[in-house]
Amino acid sequence: MRLLLIEDDVALGEGIHQALGREGYTVDWLRDGSSALHALLSETFDLAVLDLGLPRMDGLQVLRRLRHSGSTLPVLILTARDATEDRIAGLDAGADDYLIKPFDLAELKARLRALLRRSAGRAKARIEHAGISLDPGTQQVSFHGQNVPLTPKEYQLLHELLSPPGRVMTRERLTQLLYGWNEEAESNTLEVHIHHLRRKFSADLIRTVRGVGYLVEERR
Ligand code: CA
Predict the structure, then answer these.
(1) pLDDT-based confidence at residue 220 (cuts at 50, 70, 90)
(2) Are residues 105 and 149 in the same domain?
(3) How many Cβ atoms are within 10 Å of 128's Cβ, its own excluded?
(4) For the chain, how many helices (H) and strands (E)?
(5) 50 C-alpha to center of ligand 1: Å?
(6) How much distance in Å is there from the Cα of 96 to the middle of ligand 1?
(7) What is the pLDDT of residues 42-68, one digit of tens each?
(8) How many domains does the chain have?
(9) Per-residue pLDDT at 182 exceeds 90
(10) How many CA atoms lie within 13 Å of 1's alpha carbon, on the beta-carbon side?
């Protein structure tokens, strides 16, 4: 899950960046509104955490322009305690959720999981598909009732492919979602992770769509 964090407060940004990194997100962090908008319009993310008070372009304007472009990316806004009007304006501009500063990092993580769930069209937290059961809260995965240990990247990749199944995910999109800007991916890394997932679950779980990417069939 690749997340763009847009926060100009360095101490707060570092705290969020570390906490979400430990949670298994690929986190890219920008500190001003104008570069954030550019990144949001040109790259692939699963989620954005957007502070409203930002240099170079405020968060509300970033959000309005993002929605104006037709993007339905889940966005959680961060606002100050006394700024009720900002929260209302943020929700009206297309934010999916908000948190008031200061907030608990555990609550931020839970709200982000809920946003991911809603954007994948699921009401339940647990993902169940083709004998696989994946719990985003604990990141435990089982296959026909047996616990299956996965590396963080294998977990992320499986989560992307199952959110929801039935979509062809291009190689480019999967690589962006898994690695972001901070990690350099070797050219065959994605294939290696796919190979391991097929071995740990079943050979026909993930279909290769030649020249495009990968797909987990909706009904199996
Ligand atoms: Ca700020």
Answers:
(1) low
(2) no
(3) 11
(4) 8, 12
(5) 9
(6) 19
(7) 999 999 999 999 999 999 999 999 999
(8) 2
(9) no
(10) 28
CA of 116 to the centre of ligand 1 (A): 24
Which one-letter amino acid corresponds to residue 86?
Answer: D
Which run of H or of E encompasses 135? strand 132-135
- Domain co-membership, 13 together with 34: yes
**C-alpha–C-alpha distance, residues 175 and 143, integer Å:** 25
Query: Is residue 9 located within the same domain as residue 105?
Result: yes
30 and 14 both lie in a single domain: yes
Q: Are residues 135 and 92 in the same domain?
A: no
Ion ligand 1, residue ranges at CB < 5 A? 8, 51, 53
Choose the final residue of a domain: 95, 119, 143.
119
Q: Do 8 and 95 sit in the same domain of this protein?
A: yes
Domain extent at residue 78: 2-119
**Cis bond upstream, residue 74 (ω within 30):** no
pLDDT above 90 (res 115): yes
Question: How far, in Å, from the CA of 154 to the mean position of ligand 1?
Answer: 34
Kindly report the pTM of this predicted structure. Answer: 0.87
**9 exposure class (CB count in 10 Å sphere: 0-12, 13-18, 19+):** middle
- CATH code of residue 165: 1.10.10.10
Give the residue-averaged pLDDT of 202-220. Answer: 92
| DSSP secondary structure letters along 80-118 | ETT-HHHHHHHHHTT-SEEEEES--HHHHHHHHHHHHHH
- Same domain, yes or no, for 8 and 115? yes
Tokens representing 78 are 């961060």
- What are the angstrom distances between the C-alpha of 101 and each of 59, 77, 96, 112, 209? 15, 10, 17, 16, 44
